Amino acid sequence: MTWPGILGWTASLLAFIKAQLVILLLHVLSAGPIPRHVAFEMDGNRRFARLTGRRAVDGHSDGFHTLKQILETCMRLNIHCVTVYAFAIENFNRPPDEVDALMKLAEERLVEIAQNGALLSQYGVRLNVLGHRKLLPVHVQVAIDKAEGMTRQNNRAILNVCAPYASRHEMTLAVQTVVQQALDKENFDSSLITEQIIEENLMTSLGGSPPLDIFIRTSGVKRLSGFLQWQCCENTQIHMVNTYWPDFGLWDFVPILLDYQRKVLASVVGIVVPGILILQRPSPNVAR
Amino acid sequence: MVASLFLWLLHFVHASLVFLTTKFRKRRYLPPQSLTAYRSKLPKHLAIILVSHDAANPKHTEELYLECLVRVVKWCKALGIEQLTAYDAEGTLLGCSDIVKERLTHHDDLPTDESESEVEYPLTPPLSEASDSRSHSPDLGDFPVQLNVTTVCSFRKGASHHRPREVAVRRRAHHKHSHNPLTLHIISRSASKAAIASAARFLSDEEVCRRQNSQDLDHVKAYELPISELNSILEGGLPSPDFMIVHDVHLQDPPPPLELHGFPPWQMALTEIHRTIAHDVAPNNPMASLITEEAFCRALDEYAGAQFRLGR
Hey, is A82 helix, strand or coil? Predict the structure, then answer.
Protein backbone atom coordinates (compact mmCIF):
# COMPACT_ATOMS: atom_id res chain seq x y z
CA MET A 1 0.00 0.00 0.00
CA THR A 2 1.32 3.44 -0.85
CA TRP A 3 1.66 6.27 1.64
CA PRO A 4 -1.32 8.23 0.24
CA GLY A 5 -3.38 5.10 0.49
CA ILE A 6 -2.36 4.53 4.11
CA LEU A 7 -3.07 8.18 4.95
CA GLY A 8 -6.46 7.99 3.23
CA TRP A 9 -7.36 4.80 5.08
CA THR A 10 -6.28 6.34 8.40
CA ALA A 11 -8.34 9.48 7.77
CA SER A 12 -11.40 7.37 6.97
CA LEU A 13 -10.90 5.33 10.12
CA LEU A 14 -10.53 8.44 12.26
CA ALA A 15 -13.65 9.95 10.69
CA PHE A 16 -15.57 6.76 11.43
CA ILE A 17 -14.37 6.67 15.05
CA LYS A 18 -15.25 10.37 15.46
CA ALA A 19 -18.74 9.75 14.07
CA GLN A 20 -19.28 6.85 16.48
CA LEU A 21 -18.07 8.92 19.43
CA VAL A 22 -20.50 11.68 18.49
CA ILE A 23 -23.35 9.18 18.36
CA LEU A 24 -22.30 7.86 21.77
CA LEU A 25 -22.09 11.39 23.20
CA LEU A 26 -25.57 12.27 21.94
CA HIS A 27 -26.91 9.03 23.36
CA VAL A 28 -25.43 9.87 26.77
CA LEU A 29 -26.87 13.41 26.66
CA SER A 30 -30.30 12.02 25.77
CA ALA A 31 -30.33 10.19 29.11
CA GLY A 32 -30.92 13.54 30.82
CA PRO A 33 -33.50 16.32 30.36
CA ILE A 34 -33.66 17.56 26.79
CA PRO A 35 -34.97 21.02 25.85
CA ARG A 36 -38.23 21.08 23.93
CA HIS A 37 -37.40 24.14 21.84
CA VAL A 38 -34.03 25.68 20.92
CA ALA A 39 -33.56 28.85 18.86
CA PHE A 40 -30.42 29.82 16.96
CA GLU A 41 -29.60 33.34 15.81
CA MET A 42 -27.11 32.31 13.14
CA ASP A 43 -24.81 35.32 13.17
CA GLY A 44 -21.27 35.72 11.86
CA ASN A 45 -21.36 34.15 8.39
CA ARG A 46 -19.90 37.18 6.65
CA ARG A 47 -17.19 37.81 9.24
CA PHE A 48 -16.28 34.12 9.07
CA ALA A 49 -15.88 34.37 5.29
CA ARG A 50 -13.79 37.56 5.59
CA LEU A 51 -11.38 35.73 7.92
CA THR A 52 -10.49 33.43 5.04
CA GLY A 53 -10.59 36.10 2.35
CA ARG A 54 -13.85 34.92 0.79
CA ARG A 55 -17.10 36.64 -0.18
CA ALA A 56 -20.06 37.03 2.16
CA VAL A 57 -22.16 34.64 0.08
CA ASP A 58 -19.56 31.90 0.69
CA GLY A 59 -19.99 32.46 4.42
CA HIS A 60 -23.74 32.04 4.08
CA SER A 61 -23.21 28.79 2.21
CA ASP A 62 -20.96 27.55 5.03
CA GLY A 63 -23.61 28.67 7.46
CA PHE A 64 -26.22 26.55 5.74
CA HIS A 65 -23.94 23.52 6.02
CA THR A 66 -23.61 24.17 9.76
CA LEU A 67 -27.37 24.54 10.01
CA LYS A 68 -27.85 21.05 8.56
CA GLN A 69 -25.31 19.57 10.98
CA ILE A 70 -26.81 21.26 14.04
CA LEU A 71 -30.32 20.38 12.94
CA GLU A 72 -29.33 16.73 12.64
CA THR A 73 -27.74 16.90 16.12
CA CYS A 74 -30.96 18.34 17.53
CA MET A 75 -33.02 15.63 15.86
CA ARG A 76 -30.76 12.88 17.24
CA LEU A 77 -31.26 14.41 20.70
CA ASN A 78 -35.05 14.43 20.18
CA ILE A 79 -35.30 18.19 20.50
CA HIS A 80 -38.85 18.67 19.31
CA CYS A 81 -38.57 22.18 17.87
CA VAL A 82 -35.73 24.22 16.37
CA THR A 83 -36.14 27.84 15.31
CA VAL A 84 -33.52 29.66 13.27
CA TYR A 85 -33.20 33.32 12.32
CA ALA A 86 -32.32 33.14 8.65
CA PHE A 87 -33.16 36.65 7.44
CA ALA A 88 -34.29 39.78 9.27
CA ILE A 89 -36.64 42.31 7.67
CA GLU A 90 -33.83 44.83 8.20
CA ASN A 91 -31.46 42.64 6.18
CA PHE A 92 -33.09 43.99 3.02
CA ASN A 93 -30.83 47.00 3.69
CA ARG A 94 -27.81 44.91 2.75
CA PRO A 95 -26.13 45.27 -0.66
CA PRO A 96 -28.52 44.06 -3.39
CA ASP A 97 -26.16 41.38 -4.70
CA GLU A 98 -25.88 39.87 -1.23
CA VAL A 99 -29.66 39.95 -0.78
CA ASP A 100 -30.12 38.30 -4.17
CA ALA A 101 -27.59 35.61 -3.28
CA LEU A 102 -29.41 34.94 0.01
CA MET A 103 -32.75 34.69 -1.79
CA LYS A 104 -31.23 32.21 -4.26
CA LEU A 105 -29.74 30.22 -1.37
CA ALA A 106 -33.11 30.09 0.36
CA GLU A 107 -34.96 29.10 -2.81
CA GLU A 108 -32.60 26.20 -3.56
CA ARG A 109 -31.75 24.90 -0.11
CA LEU A 110 -35.21 24.86 1.44
CA VAL A 111 -36.50 22.61 -1.30
CA GLU A 112 -33.29 20.55 -1.11
CA ILE A 113 -33.70 19.68 2.58
CA ALA A 114 -37.46 19.13 2.26
CA GLN A 115 -37.24 16.55 -0.50
CA ASN A 116 -37.93 12.87 0.01
CA GLY A 117 -34.98 11.14 1.61
CA ALA A 118 -33.38 14.41 2.67
CA LEU A 119 -32.85 15.69 6.18
CA LEU A 120 -36.37 16.84 7.03
CA SER A 121 -38.13 13.72 5.79
CA GLN A 122 -35.46 11.50 7.38
CA TYR A 123 -36.35 12.83 10.83
CA GLY A 124 -40.04 13.62 10.25
CA VAL A 125 -39.56 17.38 10.53
CA ARG A 126 -42.27 19.81 9.51
CA LEU A 127 -40.98 23.03 7.99
CA ASN A 128 -42.61 26.36 8.90
CA VAL A 129 -41.29 29.54 7.31
CA LEU A 130 -42.27 32.41 9.58
CA GLY A 131 -42.24 36.09 8.79
CA HIS A 132 -43.52 38.77 6.46
CA ARG A 133 -43.58 36.50 3.45
CA LYS A 134 -44.99 39.09 1.05
CA LEU A 135 -41.69 40.97 1.21
CA LEU A 136 -39.92 38.06 -0.48
CA PRO A 137 -39.58 37.73 -4.28
CA VAL A 138 -42.36 35.66 -5.80
CA HIS A 139 -40.06 32.83 -6.87
CA VAL A 140 -38.85 32.45 -3.28
CA GLN A 141 -42.44 32.42 -2.00
CA VAL A 142 -43.22 29.65 -4.48
CA ALA A 143 -40.23 27.62 -3.30
CA ILE A 144 -41.27 28.08 0.32
CA ASP A 145 -44.82 26.93 -0.41
CA LYS A 146 -43.38 23.89 -2.17
CA ALA A 147 -40.98 23.03 0.67
CA GLU A 148 -43.66 23.47 3.33
CA GLY A 149 -46.05 21.35 1.31
CA MET A 150 -43.49 18.53 1.10
CA THR A 151 -43.20 18.35 4.88
CA ARG A 152 -46.75 19.16 5.96
CA GLN A 153 -47.50 15.57 7.00
CA ASN A 154 -44.37 15.28 9.16
CA ASN A 155 -45.13 15.35 12.86
CA ARG A 156 -42.08 14.23 14.82
CA ALA A 157 -40.41 17.63 15.01
CA ILE A 158 -40.66 21.24 13.80
CA LEU A 159 -38.16 23.49 12.05
CA ASN A 160 -39.13 27.18 12.07
CA VAL A 161 -37.13 29.23 9.59
CA CYS A 162 -37.69 32.91 10.33
CA ALA A 163 -37.37 34.84 7.07
CA PRO A 164 -37.97 37.70 6.69
CA TYR A 165 -38.77 38.15 10.34
CA ALA A 166 -38.91 40.83 13.02
CA SER A 167 -40.24 40.22 16.49
CA ARG A 168 -42.16 43.49 16.65
CA HIS A 169 -43.87 42.58 13.40
CA GLU A 170 -44.80 39.19 14.88
CA MET A 171 -46.15 40.73 18.10
CA THR A 172 -48.08 43.39 16.16
CA LEU A 173 -49.61 40.76 13.92
CA ALA A 174 -50.67 38.75 16.98
CA VAL A 175 -52.33 41.82 18.53
CA GLN A 176 -53.98 42.64 15.20
CA THR A 177 -55.36 39.09 14.95
CA VAL A 178 -56.67 39.17 18.50
CA VAL A 179 -58.37 42.52 17.94
CA GLN A 180 -59.90 41.25 14.69
CA GLN A 181 -61.21 38.18 16.52
CA ALA A 182 -62.77 40.51 19.10
CA LEU A 183 -64.38 42.64 16.40
CA ASP A 184 -65.83 39.55 14.71
CA LYS A 185 -67.75 38.62 17.85
CA GLU A 186 -70.88 40.40 18.85
CA ASN A 187 -70.63 42.27 22.20
CA PHE A 188 -67.12 41.00 22.83
CA ASP A 189 -65.76 41.89 26.27
CA SER A 190 -62.27 43.22 25.66
CA SER A 191 -61.22 42.30 29.21
CA LEU A 192 -61.03 38.74 27.85
CA ILE A 193 -57.95 39.74 25.83
CA THR A 194 -55.03 38.44 27.85
CA GLU A 195 -51.32 37.90 27.31
CA GLN A 196 -52.09 34.19 26.95
CA ILE A 197 -54.35 34.85 23.98
CA ILE A 198 -51.73 37.04 22.34
CA GLU A 199 -49.12 34.33 22.90
CA GLU A 200 -51.36 31.77 21.21
CA ASN A 201 -51.47 33.97 18.13
CA LEU A 202 -47.73 34.38 17.69
CA MET A 203 -46.34 32.78 14.53
CA THR A 204 -44.35 30.25 16.52
CA SER A 205 -47.39 29.16 18.52
CA LEU A 206 -49.59 28.94 15.43
CA GLY A 207 -47.03 26.56 13.98
CA GLY A 208 -47.26 24.31 17.04
CA SER A 209 -44.00 25.33 18.71
CA PRO A 210 -43.62 24.68 22.46
CA PRO A 211 -42.24 27.36 24.83
CA LEU A 212 -38.65 28.35 24.14
CA ASP A 213 -36.09 26.75 26.47
CA ILE A 214 -32.76 27.87 25.01
CA PHE A 215 -31.82 30.90 22.88
CA ILE A 216 -28.38 30.92 21.27
CA ARG A 217 -26.78 33.80 19.40
CA THR A 218 -23.39 33.30 17.80
CA SER A 219 -20.58 35.72 16.87
CA GLY A 220 -20.30 37.41 20.26
CA VAL A 221 -23.04 40.01 19.74
CA LYS A 222 -25.08 40.51 22.90
CA ARG A 223 -28.43 41.67 21.58
CA LEU A 224 -31.62 39.95 20.49
CA SER A 225 -31.81 42.11 17.32
CA GLY A 226 -35.50 41.53 16.88
CA PHE A 227 -35.53 37.75 17.27
CA LEU A 228 -38.16 36.02 19.41
CA GLN A 229 -38.36 38.83 21.96
CA TRP A 230 -41.69 37.67 23.43
CA GLN A 231 -40.68 34.02 23.46
CA CYS A 232 -37.28 34.44 25.14
CA CYS A 233 -37.95 37.15 27.74
CA GLU A 234 -39.04 34.64 30.39
CA ASN A 235 -37.89 31.15 31.48
CA THR A 236 -35.45 30.90 28.58
CA GLN A 237 -31.72 30.42 28.98
CA ILE A 238 -29.87 32.91 26.79
CA HIS A 239 -26.41 32.07 25.47
CA MET A 240 -24.34 34.61 23.55
CA VAL A 241 -21.34 32.63 22.28
CA ASN A 242 -18.29 34.16 20.61
CA THR A 243 -18.01 31.51 17.90
CA TYR A 244 -19.10 32.52 14.40
CA TRP A 245 -22.06 30.48 13.16
CA PRO A 246 -20.20 28.43 10.50
CA ASP A 247 -17.83 27.27 13.26
CA PHE A 248 -20.58 26.44 15.75
CA GLY A 249 -20.55 22.78 16.72
CA LEU A 250 -20.73 20.28 19.54
CA TRP A 251 -17.88 21.96 21.39
CA ASP A 252 -20.18 24.99 21.87
CA PHE A 253 -23.52 23.18 21.98
CA VAL A 254 -22.83 20.45 24.54
CA PRO A 255 -21.99 22.84 27.43
CA ILE A 256 -25.20 24.75 26.66
CA LEU A 257 -27.20 21.52 26.89
CA LEU A 258 -25.44 20.58 30.13
CA ASP A 259 -26.37 23.98 31.60
CA TYR A 260 -30.00 23.35 30.67
CA GLN A 261 -29.92 19.91 32.27
CA ARG A 262 -28.43 21.36 35.45
CA LYS A 263 -31.26 23.89 35.66
CA VAL A 264 -33.94 21.23 35.20
CA LEU A 265 -32.32 18.86 37.67
CA ALA A 266 -31.92 21.68 40.22
CA SER A 267 -35.62 22.50 39.94
CA VAL A 268 -36.51 18.82 40.36
CA VAL A 269 -34.33 18.60 43.48
CA GLY A 270 -35.99 21.75 44.73
CA ILE A 271 -39.36 20.00 44.51
CA VAL A 272 -38.35 16.46 45.43
CA VAL A 273 -36.19 17.16 48.48
CA PRO A 274 -38.77 19.31 50.29
CA GLY A 275 -41.37 16.74 49.31
CA ILE A 276 -39.29 13.96 50.84
CA LEU A 277 -38.75 16.03 53.98
CA ILE A 278 -42.48 16.60 54.28
CA LEU A 279 -43.18 12.88 53.89
CA GLN A 280 -40.57 12.02 56.51
CA ARG A 281 -41.89 14.51 59.07
CA PRO A 282 -43.33 12.51 62.02
CA SER A 283 -47.05 12.73 62.59
CA PRO A 284 -47.86 14.88 65.65
CA ASN A 285 -49.93 11.99 67.09
CA VAL A 286 -47.06 9.51 67.15
CA ALA A 287 -45.80 8.88 70.69
CA ARG A 288 -42.09 9.60 71.10
CA MET B 1 -28.67 3.15 33.47
CA VAL B 2 -25.17 3.04 31.97
CA ALA B 3 -25.97 6.11 29.89
CA SER B 4 -27.10 7.95 33.05
CA LEU B 5 -23.83 7.11 34.78
CA PHE B 6 -21.85 8.42 31.83
CA LEU B 7 -24.03 11.54 31.85
CA TRP B 8 -23.20 12.23 35.50
CA LEU B 9 -19.54 11.76 34.62
CA LEU B 10 -19.92 14.21 31.75
CA HIS B 11 -21.52 16.76 34.09
CA PHE B 12 -18.70 16.28 36.58
CA VAL B 13 -16.06 16.78 33.90
CA HIS B 14 -17.86 19.88 32.59
CA ALA B 15 -18.24 21.39 36.06
CA SER B 16 -14.55 20.76 36.75
CA LEU B 17 -13.52 22.41 33.50
CA VAL B 18 -15.72 25.43 34.21
CA PHE B 19 -14.23 25.71 37.71
CA LEU B 20 -10.68 25.59 36.37
CA THR B 21 -11.49 28.06 33.59
CA THR B 22 -12.99 30.47 36.12
CA LYS B 23 -9.90 30.24 38.30
CA PHE B 24 -7.68 30.82 35.29
CA ARG B 25 -9.71 33.88 34.25
CA LYS B 26 -9.43 35.32 37.76
CA ARG B 27 -5.65 35.18 37.49
CA ARG B 28 -5.84 37.14 34.25
CA TYR B 29 -8.39 39.59 35.59
CA LEU B 30 -8.08 43.13 34.23
CA PRO B 31 -9.91 45.93 36.06
CA PRO B 32 -12.26 48.13 33.98
CA GLN B 33 -11.74 51.84 33.26
CA SER B 34 -12.77 54.31 35.95
CA LEU B 35 -16.27 55.78 36.01
CA THR B 36 -15.23 59.14 34.59
CA ALA B 37 -12.83 57.76 31.97
CA TYR B 38 -13.54 58.63 28.36
CA ARG B 39 -15.74 56.16 26.51
CA SER B 40 -16.65 56.42 22.83
CA LYS B 41 -20.31 56.04 23.62
CA LEU B 42 -22.61 55.95 26.61
CA PRO B 43 -26.20 54.72 26.70
CA LYS B 44 -28.90 57.40 26.67
CA HIS B 45 -31.26 54.98 28.36
CA LEU B 46 -29.92 52.32 30.71
CA ALA B 47 -31.96 49.49 32.21
CA ILE B 48 -31.00 47.45 35.22
CA ILE B 49 -32.63 44.11 35.95
CA LEU B 50 -32.31 43.14 39.60
CA VAL B 51 -32.63 39.43 40.34
CA SER B 52 -32.85 37.55 43.61
CA HIS B 53 -33.20 33.84 44.35
CA ASP B 54 -33.93 34.36 48.03
CA ALA B 55 -37.70 34.35 48.30
CA ALA B 56 -37.48 33.63 52.03
CA ASN B 57 -36.12 37.09 52.93
CA PRO B 58 -38.12 39.69 51.01
CA LYS B 59 -37.13 42.52 53.36
CA HIS B 60 -33.43 41.82 52.85
CA THR B 61 -33.98 41.62 49.10
CA GLU B 62 -35.78 44.96 49.18
CA GLU B 63 -32.85 46.55 51.01
CA LEU B 64 -30.38 45.11 48.51
CA TYR B 65 -32.44 46.33 45.55
CA LEU B 66 -32.85 49.80 47.03
CA GLU B 67 -29.15 50.18 47.70
CA CYS B 68 -28.28 48.92 44.20
CA LEU B 69 -30.71 51.39 42.67
CA VAL B 70 -29.39 54.33 44.68
CA ARG B 71 -25.85 53.51 43.56
CA VAL B 72 -26.80 53.18 39.89
CA VAL B 73 -28.78 56.45 39.99
CA LYS B 74 -25.75 58.23 41.44
CA TRP B 75 -23.45 56.90 38.70
CA CYS B 76 -25.97 57.67 35.95
CA LYS B 77 -26.29 61.24 37.14
CA ALA B 78 -22.52 61.59 37.29
CA LEU B 79 -22.25 60.44 33.68
CA GLY B 80 -25.24 62.33 32.29
CA ILE B 81 -27.22 59.21 31.39
CA GLU B 82 -30.70 60.62 30.76
CA GLN B 83 -32.96 57.69 31.51
CA LEU B 84 -32.77 54.71 33.81
CA THR B 85 -35.22 51.83 34.02
CA ALA B 86 -35.11 49.66 37.12
CA TYR B 87 -36.81 46.29 36.77
CA ASP B 88 -37.43 43.42 39.10
CA ALA B 89 -39.92 40.74 38.16
CA GLU B 90 -41.72 40.54 41.50
CA GLY B 91 -42.37 44.29 41.79
CA THR B 92 -40.30 44.77 44.94
CA LEU B 93 -39.10 48.23 43.83
CA LEU B 94 -42.52 49.16 42.55
CA GLY B 95 -43.98 48.32 45.93
CA CYS B 96 -41.60 50.70 47.68
CA SER B 97 -41.48 53.51 45.13
CA ASP B 98 -42.13 56.05 47.90
CA ILE B 99 -39.05 54.84 49.74
CA VAL B 100 -37.13 55.01 46.43
CA LYS B 101 -38.15 58.63 46.00
CA GLU B 102 -37.18 59.43 49.58
CA ARG B 103 -33.79 57.72 49.30
CA LEU B 104 -32.99 59.48 46.05
CA THR B 105 -33.95 62.86 47.47
CA HIS B 106 -31.88 62.47 50.61
CA HIS B 107 -28.85 60.74 49.14
CA ASP B 108 -25.56 62.03 50.59
CA ASP B 109 -23.96 62.90 47.26
CA LEU B 110 -26.67 65.35 46.30
CA PRO B 111 -25.59 69.00 46.73
CA THR B 112 -27.55 71.21 49.13
CA ASP B 113 -29.26 73.27 46.43
CA GLU B 114 -30.83 70.07 45.48
CA SER B 115 -33.10 68.73 42.85
CA GLU B 116 -36.68 67.81 43.49
CA SER B 117 -38.24 64.69 42.27
CA GLU B 118 -41.76 64.30 41.11
CA VAL B 119 -43.62 61.09 40.77
CA GLU B 120 -45.65 60.66 37.62
CA TYR B 121 -48.04 57.84 36.99
CA PRO B 122 -48.75 57.82 33.27
CA LEU B 123 -51.86 55.70 32.92
CA THR B 124 -53.29 57.24 29.81
CA PRO B 125 -50.81 57.23 26.95
CA PRO B 126 -50.65 59.99 24.39
CA LEU B 127 -53.11 59.47 21.58
CA SER B 128 -51.54 57.36 18.89
CA GLU B 129 -50.39 59.22 15.82
CA ALA B 130 -53.09 59.73 13.25
CA SER B 131 -52.91 57.04 10.62
CA ASP B 132 -54.38 56.91 7.17
CA SER B 133 -57.00 54.39 8.12
CA ARG B 134 -58.56 55.95 11.15
CA SER B 135 -59.26 59.30 12.71
CA HIS B 136 -59.56 60.19 16.37
CA SER B 137 -62.77 61.80 17.47
CA PRO B 138 -63.34 63.42 20.88
CA ASP B 139 -66.39 61.18 21.14
CA LEU B 140 -64.19 58.09 21.57
CA GLY B 141 -63.72 58.85 25.25
CA ASP B 142 -60.78 57.84 27.38
CA PHE B 143 -59.60 54.22 27.30
CA PRO B 144 -56.73 54.11 29.77
CA VAL B 145 -53.95 51.68 28.97
CA GLN B 146 -52.43 50.13 32.07
CA LEU B 147 -48.75 50.19 31.22
CA ASN B 148 -47.76 50.00 34.92
CA VAL B 149 -44.72 52.22 34.71
CA THR B 150 -43.83 54.46 37.65
CA THR B 151 -41.71 57.38 36.52
CA VAL B 152 -39.66 59.57 38.81
CA CYS B 153 -38.20 62.72 37.27
CA SER B 154 -35.47 64.69 39.00
CA PHE B 155 -34.69 68.28 38.08
CA ARG B 156 -33.06 71.26 39.72
CA LYS B 157 -34.99 73.26 42.34
CA GLY B 158 -36.27 76.53 40.96
CA ALA B 159 -36.19 75.37 37.34
CA SER B 160 -39.42 75.30 35.40
CA HIS B 161 -41.21 71.98 35.48
CA HIS B 162 -40.35 70.68 32.07
CA ARG B 163 -39.95 67.07 30.97
CA PRO B 164 -36.38 65.87 31.49
CA ARG B 165 -35.79 64.94 27.87
CA GLU B 166 -36.06 68.61 26.94
CA VAL B 167 -33.03 69.37 29.08
CA ALA B 168 -29.74 69.38 27.20
CA VAL B 169 -27.45 66.79 28.70
CA ARG B 170 -23.75 66.69 27.98
CA ARG B 171 -22.66 63.28 26.79
CA ARG B 172 -19.08 63.29 28.06
CA ALA B 173 -17.98 62.17 31.51
CA HIS B 174 -18.66 64.62 34.32
CA HIS B 175 -17.17 65.50 37.64
CA LYS B 176 -18.32 62.93 40.12
CA HIS B 177 -20.61 65.33 41.94
CA SER B 178 -22.34 66.93 38.97
CA HIS B 179 -26.06 66.23 38.93
CA ASN B 180 -27.70 65.92 35.59
CA PRO B 181 -31.43 65.42 35.35
CA LEU B 182 -32.44 61.79 35.24
CA THR B 183 -35.75 60.13 34.47
CA LEU B 184 -36.21 56.92 36.41
CA HIS B 185 -38.77 54.33 35.36
CA ILE B 186 -39.59 51.65 37.91
CA ILE B 187 -41.27 48.58 36.48
CA SER B 188 -42.04 44.95 37.14
CA ARG B 189 -43.47 42.06 35.19
CA SER B 190 -46.79 43.90 35.09
CA ALA B 191 -45.23 46.28 32.53
CA SER B 192 -44.16 43.40 30.33
CA LYS B 193 -46.46 41.11 28.34
CA ALA B 194 -49.42 42.33 30.41
CA ALA B 195 -48.87 45.85 29.05
CA ILE B 196 -49.09 44.55 25.49
CA ALA B 197 -52.36 42.83 26.41
CA SER B 198 -53.59 46.10 27.90
CA ALA B 199 -52.69 47.90 24.68
CA ALA B 200 -54.60 45.25 22.72
CA ARG B 201 -57.69 45.82 24.88
CA PHE B 202 -57.35 49.57 24.34
CA LEU B 203 -57.09 49.14 20.57
CA SER B 204 -60.06 46.80 20.54
CA ASP B 205 -62.27 49.21 22.48
CA GLU B 206 -61.08 52.14 20.40
CA GLU B 207 -61.87 50.35 17.14
CA VAL B 208 -65.31 49.22 18.35
CA CYS B 209 -66.13 52.78 19.32
CA ARG B 210 -64.79 54.16 16.06
CA ARG B 211 -66.85 51.74 14.00
CA GLN B 212 -69.97 52.51 15.99
CA ASN B 213 -69.49 56.22 15.43
CA SER B 214 -68.34 55.95 11.86
CA GLN B 215 -70.70 57.02 9.10
CA ASP B 216 -68.79 54.92 6.54
CA LEU B 217 -69.50 51.30 5.78
CA ASP B 218 -65.84 50.42 6.34
CA HIS B 219 -66.65 48.16 9.29
CA VAL B 220 -66.40 45.20 6.94
CA LYS B 221 -62.77 46.04 6.22
CA ALA B 222 -60.19 43.90 7.99
CA TYR B 223 -58.58 45.59 10.95
CA GLU B 224 -55.01 46.67 10.27
CA LEU B 225 -52.57 47.66 12.96
CA PRO B 226 -49.36 49.43 11.92
CA ILE B 227 -46.28 48.59 14.01
CA SER B 228 -45.78 52.31 14.57
CA GLU B 229 -49.16 52.62 16.28
CA LEU B 230 -48.51 49.83 18.77
CA ASN B 231 -45.03 51.22 19.26
CA SER B 232 -46.28 54.69 20.11
CA ILE B 233 -48.56 53.21 22.79
CA LEU B 234 -45.95 50.97 24.38
CA GLU B 235 -42.95 53.28 24.08
CA GLY B 236 -45.13 56.16 25.22
CA GLY B 237 -45.07 54.51 28.63
CA LEU B 238 -41.59 52.99 28.54
CA PRO B 239 -39.00 53.88 25.89
CA SER B 240 -36.57 51.19 24.72
CA PRO B 241 -33.29 51.07 26.63
CA ASP B 242 -30.01 51.10 24.70
CA PHE B 243 -28.25 48.99 27.28
CA MET B 244 -29.30 46.56 29.97
CA ILE B 245 -27.36 45.29 32.99
CA VAL B 246 -28.60 42.11 34.64
CA HIS B 247 -27.47 41.93 38.27
CA ASP B 248 -28.13 39.01 40.57
CA VAL B 249 -27.94 40.11 44.20
CA HIS B 250 -26.95 36.55 45.09
CA LEU B 251 -24.12 36.15 42.63
CA GLN B 252 -22.94 32.62 41.99
CA ASP B 253 -19.55 31.73 40.61
CA PRO B 254 -19.76 30.42 37.96
CA PRO B 255 -23.15 31.99 37.26
CA PRO B 256 -26.08 30.11 35.72
CA PRO B 257 -27.02 31.01 32.13
CA LEU B 258 -28.42 34.46 31.50
CA GLU B 259 -32.18 34.91 31.68
CA LEU B 260 -34.26 38.04 31.16
CA HIS B 261 -36.81 37.42 33.94
CA GLY B 262 -39.81 38.75 32.05
CA PHE B 263 -38.42 42.17 31.07
CA PRO B 264 -40.80 43.92 28.64
CA PRO B 265 -40.24 42.15 25.32
CA TRP B 266 -41.33 45.00 23.01
CA GLN B 267 -38.58 47.29 24.27
CA MET B 268 -35.70 44.80 23.91
CA ALA B 269 -35.26 44.72 20.14
CA LEU B 270 -31.85 46.42 19.98
CA THR B 271 -30.87 46.52 23.65
CA GLU B 272 -27.29 45.52 24.36
CA ILE B 273 -27.28 43.01 27.24
CA HIS B 274 -24.63 42.65 29.94
CA ARG B 275 -24.53 40.62 33.11
CA THR B 276 -22.39 41.47 36.13
CA ILE B 277 -19.73 38.95 37.10
CA ALA B 278 -18.84 37.80 40.60
CA HIS B 279 -15.26 38.91 40.33
CA ASP B 280 -16.23 42.58 40.05
CA VAL B 281 -17.83 42.39 43.49
CA ALA B 282 -15.48 43.41 46.30
CA PRO B 283 -14.15 40.33 48.16
CA ASN B 284 -14.84 39.84 51.87
CA ASN B 285 -17.64 42.34 51.67
CA PRO B 286 -20.68 41.49 53.82
CA MET B 287 -22.84 43.35 51.30
CA ALA B 288 -21.16 41.49 48.47
CA SER B 289 -24.41 41.18 46.61
CA LEU B 290 -24.56 44.88 45.78
CA ILE B 291 -23.58 46.15 42.36
CA THR B 292 -20.19 47.82 42.60
CA GLU B 293 -18.78 50.76 40.67
CA GLU B 294 -16.28 48.34 39.14
CA ALA B 295 -19.08 46.13 37.80
CA PHE B 296 -20.90 49.20 36.46
CA CYS B 297 -17.76 50.47 34.73
CA ARG B 298 -17.06 47.09 33.17
CA ALA B 299 -20.58 47.11 31.77
CA LEU B 300 -20.04 50.57 30.29
CA ASP B 301 -16.70 49.46 28.79
CA GLU B 302 -18.50 46.60 27.09
CA TYR B 303 -21.23 48.89 25.77
CA ALA B 304 -18.66 51.32 24.40
CA GLY B 305 -17.06 48.49 22.44
CA ALA B 306 -20.29 47.13 20.95
CA GLN B 307 -20.93 47.52 17.21
CA PHE B 308 -24.38 48.11 15.72
CA ARG B 309 -24.87 47.06 12.09
CA LEU B 310 -28.69 47.46 12.07
CA GLY B 311 -29.25 44.65 9.60
CA ARG B 312 -26.56 45.76 7.14
Answer: strand
For B211, nearest residue in chain A (alpha carbons): A183
ipTM of this model? 0.89
CB-CB under 8 Å, B311 with A91: yes
Q: What are phi and psi of B267, to 5 degrees?
A: -85, 0
DSSP string, B274-296: EE--GGGSPTT-TTTTSPPHHHH
Q: Compute how many other C-beta atoms are within 10 angstroms of the C-beta atom of residue A105.
A: 18
Q: In terms of CA atoms, which chain A residue is nearest residue B204? A: A179
Residues of A with CB below 8 A from B272's CB? 222-223
Residues B64-75: b if buried by 16+ CB within 10 A, e if exposed: bbbbbbbbbbbb
Helix (H, G, I), strand (E, B) or coil at B152: strand
pTM for the predicted model, two decimal places:
0.86
- What are the pLDDT digits (tens) for A30-84? 999 999 999 999 999 999 999 989 988 889 899 999 999 999 999 999 999 999 9
Spatial contact of B156 and B47, defined as CB atoms under 8 Å apart: no
Nearest CB partner across the interface for A171, out of B266, B274, B306: B266
Mark yes or no for CB contact A237/B266 under 8 Å: no
Least Cα distance to A240 among B297, B258, B127, B119 occurs for: B258
Any B CB within 8 A of A31 CB: yes
Close Cβ partners of B289 (under 8 Å, ≥ 6 residues apart): B64, B248, B249, B250, B251, B281
